[in-house]
Structures are given as structure tokens and as C-alpha cells.
Specification:
single chain; 482 residues; alpha/beta; Rossmann fold; pyruvate-formate lyase- activating enzyme; OB fold (Dihydrolipoamide Acetyltransferase, E2P); 3 domains; five-stranded mixed beta barrel; 14 helices; binds S-adenosyl-L-homocysteine; binds iron/sulfur cluster; binds FE3-S4 cluster
Length: 482
């Protein structure tokens, strides 16, 4: 068993506070010591990432630190000298999966006593999960939180020099880090990139753990975001996706409610070929954003706008700050300006107290919005959240039945829209060799629809016109159009 050095532990009570602290922006690069470089140079690491795009971007930042030590990456545990897990806490199964994987990592450690194991990300911000980890997995070398990414080198060195498990999870961050030098190849793709615009979330939807795991909402400075996009464009990137838990709240912390529309316009003016963003919060939208989407051809005609429920009663219990009518109004404003928009959403079924009538309202709003796709979830109680204390009075069969009915409806809507693409010409950015058929190359059209085309890997990274010849629910088949 390793000695534990508990530098700082998470506190949901601390995380729930929203103090108007002054944001400090640190603008220094972080350089590894010669000790770390000589220890890790030439060795292999493997990072397993769970959760959303924010976590993928965080894993890229850690990969950057590792590549800068001269390390190389391997796809799975075998051959790795270091295994890192970037964890997610959004639903219960995310946590269960991690503990299974840690068991597998333990078996690797039994074979190689020098194997270094670290765990970070959202789940480590959750007290119960962290305590379970500390009790059951004492072989771990390093545990850090979502706000400790930039202490990575320091913690890594400490854990090695003192041969102890370092645990560092800070709450209430009031700083942003800029100025980190990025090594070529540290992002997962050479053509599409995520760009953080806000961190954290202040919405406190009653079911959601994110405001506790990612803390207070903080916006990056516009000039830092634009500089990052310009730099990506120069390197040949074709697409950026602006990331935040509520992208359209961007700038509210520095007092500008219209800042997201301005930011989007400034990103469009960089001339990068494709711009996407995720996720917007319905009632933070203003129509200026839609005007920018309609005006600039490089802002993609796609919007992921989570509704969660179609019932006003449930929306209120969820602390979502809009009504069904307001949501429909936003969609109407959107479709007036962008008739071709590809609209998707997130929906939770079987939230506590959801009745059949409430659920039918969810089904009916899906038809009214005519969604082109949706991520659907059964409510999962998360520790400390208000909804986890509400009486979960819906029988399991009813939950599953609602989930299936919703999924059937969404699939039929998705399929209906997919059919309308057949015979049209779409611009596709090719990203990879198809997972199912080595002779096919896969990419996404402007709407974000997956398209497979017969071709070779020289297409990867290029945007080409494609004639759509066949549609399936989740993908389209096309031919290169001369
Ligand atoms: N910030 C984004 C997405 C956050 S998480 C937003 O507000 O839209 C992604 C999705 O997970 C949510 O939209 C919601 O549908 C789902 N989700 C979050 N917490 C959940 C929970 N406790 N149970 C089930 N689904 C949940
Ligand atoms: Fe969670 Fe709501 Fe914040 Fe989205 S807006 S991250 S669902 S609390
Ligand atoms: Fe999961 Fe954290 Fe994202 S909880 S969904 S990784 S913000």
C-alpha cells in the first residue's frame, strides 16, 4: 500500500458557492524539469477518456504535457509505462465502468510493478467516488481534479520523488491558464479541433453534477480564443468546435450578454473553413447568434439545443429556465433564418414525478421541432444534486418503456430527414477510414451528418463535394462528385 499525500480534497459544498471573485489569467508556459524528462523520455503512455468533449480536450492538454516529456502513446494498456484515466460523473454507469477498468489496470500493475497509474477528471471531484477509489485502489500513483491540469508536472514529480500517491483536487478555481506551448500532434485530429471558450457551469439543473465537478463558469478572453483559431488555421485545421457547457452564456461573467454572437462572428471572420459550437442553453440564446449563423457560410447549419423535457412541470422541477412555449419560439426564430438547419437535442426520460402526460408532452415537442437526432437518457440520480433527493417513483419497466418509445420516435424522425439528403450534393470533410469497411472513407457533411464514400485515405483532411445515393438512419452513403 502506498503512502497517501492528500494535498486537497473535493467539497461539493465549496463547489456550490459562486463568489464574485476576480478572475486571474496566468499567461506562462509550464516547462518540465530535467528530472521528469530523463525519467519519462522514450516511455509509453495510454490515456482512456470517458465523458464529453470537454474531457477530450482536457486529455489533449495532458497528452501535450506527456509528448513534451518525450513520451510516446500506445492505444491500450499493453506496453504502457503510464496509464491515465480521464473520468466522467454525468451518469451512474460512467462511474461503474471506471472501476471495472481500474481492476484491469491493477492486473497490469501486478505484472509490472513500475507501471504508473493516474486518475483525473470529473468523477474525482465527487467525494463518494474519490473515497471509494482511495479505499479500494491504493496502488494508484496520482489523482487530480478538473482544475489541477496545470499542476500535472509538479504532482507527477512529487509522486515519483516521494514514492507516494498524490491527491490534489481544488474547488472554486478563479483562474484561467493561457500561454501553454502546444506540441505538434497533441490534439487527436490534424483537421478538426476543439477550442474551449468557457469552463464550468452556473446553471444548476437539479439533476446535473457538472456545476459541482467543473465549478464556476469562466469565459476565456476573446483575443485568446481568436489567436488559438488563427493558429489552428495556419496549421491546416479545417474545422473548430467552440466548447462550453453553455456556449451562449459566453461573456456573461464579464458583463456582455451578446458576447457569444460577437465571438462567433469574429471566429467566422478568421476564415477557417468550418465552425461548430456546443452546447448552447435555450434561454441564453439571442437571435443575433442565428443572424451570424445565417450570414457566414463557414458557421455550420447545425444546432444541438438540449430540451430535456417537453413538459413545463418537469422543466420547472429540473430548474431549466425556459418553458415549452419559449423553447418552441426559439426554434421558430432559428428555422426562419436557417430553414436547412440540422436540429438535435438531449432528452431525459423518467425524471422523478414524470407522469405519462408529461412524457406525452416530450413526444409531442419532438414532433413539433421535428428533431433530426437526439441523445436520450434515463434519469440517473447523482450525489448531492437536488433531484437525487426527489422521490424516484417510476417503476423500472415504465422507465424502459418510455425510453424505447422515445428512441423509436427519434429514430423515425432521423431516418425521415436522412432520406431528404438522397440525390443532393453535400460538402464532406473526410476524417478517417470507415470502421466497418476499409474501402470506405468517412466524414461529416455541413449538417454534421456522417457520410461514407468509396475512396482511399488520401481524402482524409479534405473537403469534397459528394452526391448522396443512399440513406440509413445514422449515416449516408455517397459518391465523389466531379
Ligand atoms: N451542458 C450541456 C450538457 C451537459 S451533460 C447542457 O446543458 O445541455 C449532457 C446531457 O446529459 C444533458 O443534456 C442531459 O440530457 C444528460 N444528463 C445530465 N445529467 C443527467 C442525469 N443525472 N441523468 C440522466 N441524464 C443526464
Ligand atoms: Fe448540467 Fe444544466 Fe449546466 Fe448543462 S446547463 S451542464 S445540464 S447544470
Ligand atoms: Fe462527464 Fe464531466 Fe463532461 S461529468 S459529461 S466529463 S463535464
Amino acid at each position: 500500500m502506498k503512502k497517501k499525500n492528500l494535498i486537497s480534497l473535493p467539497s461539493f459544498r465549496e463547489e456550490a458557492r459562486r463568489d464574485p471573485e476576480h478572475l486571474i489569467i496566468q499567461e506562462n508556459d509550464i516547462v518540465p524539469t530535467t528530472f521528469l524528462v530523463s525519467y519519462w523520455q522514450g516511455k509509453f503512455f495510454c490515456i482512456k477518456t470517458y465523458g464529453c468533449q470537454a474531457n477530450i480536450r482536457d486529455s489533449e492538454k495532458i497528452r501535450n504535457f506527456l509528448f513534451r516529456l518525450g513520451m510516446r502513446e500506445c492505444p491500450d494498456f499493453s506496453g504502457a509505462d503510464m496509464i491515465l484515466f480521464n473520468t466522467c460523473a454525468i451518469r451512474e454507469n460512467a462511474a461503474n465502468h471506471l472501476f471495472g477498468e481500474l481492476g484491469r489496470a491493477k492486473r497490469e500493475r501486478d505484472k509490472n510493478k513500475d507501471l504508473y497509474i493516474g486518475v483525473f477528471g470529473c468523477l474525482m471531484q465527487e467525494e463518494k467516488a474519490l473515497n471509494r477509489l482511495l479505499e479500494q485502489f491504493s496502488f494508484i500513483n496520482l489523482v487530480f481534479g478538473t482544475n489541477n491540469l496545470y499542476s500535472f508536472y509538479e504532482l507527477l514529480e512529487k509522486s515519483l520523488r516521494n514514492d507516494e500517491m498524490e491527491v490534489a483536487i481544488y474547488s472554486q478555481p478563479s483562474y484561467l491558464q493561457e500561454g501553454i506551448v502546444e506540441k505538434e500532434g497533441s490534439r487527436y485530429s490534424k483537421y478538426t479541433a476543439y477550442v474551449d471558450i468557457t469552463y464550468g457551469c452556473d446553471k444548476f439543473c437539479t439533476y446535473c453534477i457538472v456545476p459541482y465537478t467543473r465549478g464556476k463558469e469562466r469565459s476565456r478572453r476573446m483575443e485568446d480564443i481568436i489567436a488559438e483559431v488563427n493558429c489552428l488555421k495556419e496549421k491546416g485545421y479545417k474545422q473548430v468546435t467552440l466548447l462550453g457547457q453553455n456556449v451562449d452564456s459566453y461573456g456573461k461573467d464579464f458583463g456582455d450578454s451578446y458576447a457569444f454572437a460577437t465571438l462567433l462572428e469574429n471566429v467566422a471572420k478568421t476564415g477557417i473553413e468550418r465552425i461548430r459550437f456546443t452546447t448552447p442553453y435555450p434561454s441564453d440564446f439571442n437571435t443575433k447568434v442565428f443572424d451570424v449563423m445565417a450570414k457566414y457560410k463557414n458557421v455550420m447549419p447545425a444546432l444541438h439545443l438540449p430540451i430535456q423535457s417537453g413538459s413545463n412541470r418537469i422543466l420547472k422541477l429540473m430548474n431549466r429556465r425556459y418553458t415549452r412555449e419559449e423553447y418552441l419560439n426559439i426554434v421558430r426564430e432559428l428555422k426562419e433564418r436557417l430553414p436547412d438547419v440540422y436540429l438535435t437535442t438531449d432528452i431525459i426520460v423518467a425524471f422523478p414525478h414524470e407522469t405519462e402526460e408529461d412524457f406525452l408532452e416530450t413526444l409531442s415537442i419532438c414532433e413539433e421541432c421535428s428533431y433530426d437526432g437526439a441523445f436520450t437518457f434515463i434519469f440517473s440520480p447523482r450525489p448531492m444534486t437536488p433531484a437525487s433527493k426527489m422521490k424516484d417513483d417510476i417503476p423500472l419497466e415504465v422507465k424502459q418503456d418510455r425510453f424505447n418509445r422515445l428512441k423509436d420516435l427519434i429514430d423515425s424522425l432521423t431516418e425521415k430527414r436522412a432520406k431528404t439528403f438522397v440525390g443532393t450534393i453535400q460538402k464532406v470533410l473526410f476524417e478517417e477510414v470507415s470502421k466497418r469497411d476499409k474501402n470506405m472513407i468517412s466524414g461529416y457533411d455541413e449538417h454534421g451528418k456522417l457520410v461514407h464514400v468509396k475512396g482511399d485515405s488520401s481524402l482524409i483532411g479534405q473537403i469534397k463535394e459528394v452526391k448522396i445515393v443512399e440513406s440509413h438512419t445514422y449515416s449516408l452513403i455517397g459518391e465523389l462528385y466531379e
